[in-house]
């Protein structure tokens, strides 16, 4: 079975349409676009070198945030807190043909949030490791070559053994890489 590919250039001039085929992507970058780049740098520094974190970040470290609640039906319900649900993530995706595309959350996607059942212990601000597989379904909204993700339009499939080299490459030294990228974007390097 051949995998459908996504060529953003085919969609770039179209104001709004839907994805023609289901496409399997790897997630190669995740950015919290609801937070300033300066605050993102501080978040990453907290994981990279906790001894160099701003003093303001240390004063409330004993406060606990409830990230999920197990209800009577043994289902997890994400808490509605500002640190988890009021953020929007931008993803950089790569398909099997090495075509890249940006995708934005159109609604909060559980796998991108700490405390969700799909979240992994990454020891970073990200809830999942980079390199995981994301299946974007036929019919997903595409505007000017950018994909908009909803619960119904995508399935996070996690890390696949065939992608181990990619996963290791993307996640090795991730905190330092992210700090460097964000500092360059701010022009502070």
Automatic annotation (TrEMBL):
Name recorded for this polypeptide: RecQ mediated genome instability protein 1 OB-fold domain-containing protein
At the top level, the lineage of the source is: Eukaryota
Q: Where is the RecQ mediated genome instability protein 1 OB-fold domain?
A: 16-162
Pfam families in the cross-refs: RMI1_N_C
């Amino acid at each position: 079975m051949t995998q459908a590919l996504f060529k953003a250039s085919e969609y770039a001039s179209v104001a709004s349409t839907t994805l023609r085929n289901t496409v399997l992507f790897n997630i190669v970058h995740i950015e919290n676009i609801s937070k300033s780049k300066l605050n993102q740098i501080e978040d990453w520094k907290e994981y990279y070198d906790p001894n160099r974190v701003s003093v303001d970040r240390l004063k409330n470290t004993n406060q606990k945030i409830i990230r999920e609640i197990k209800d009577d039906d043994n289902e997890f319900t994400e808490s509605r807190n500002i640190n988890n649900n009021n953020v929007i993530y931008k993803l950089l995706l790569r398909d099997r043909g090495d075509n890249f595309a940006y995708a934005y959350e159109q609604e909060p996607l559980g796998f991108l949030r700490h405390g969700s059942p799909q979240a992994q212990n990454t020891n970073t601000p990200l809830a999942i490791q980079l390199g995981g597989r994301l299946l974007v379904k036929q019919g997903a909204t595409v505007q000017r070559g950018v994909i908009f993700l909803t619960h119904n339009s995508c399935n996070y499939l996690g890390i696949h053994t065939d992608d181990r080299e990619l996963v290791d490459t993307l996640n090795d030294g991730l905190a330092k890489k992210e700090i460097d990228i964000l500092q360059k974007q701010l022009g502070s390097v």
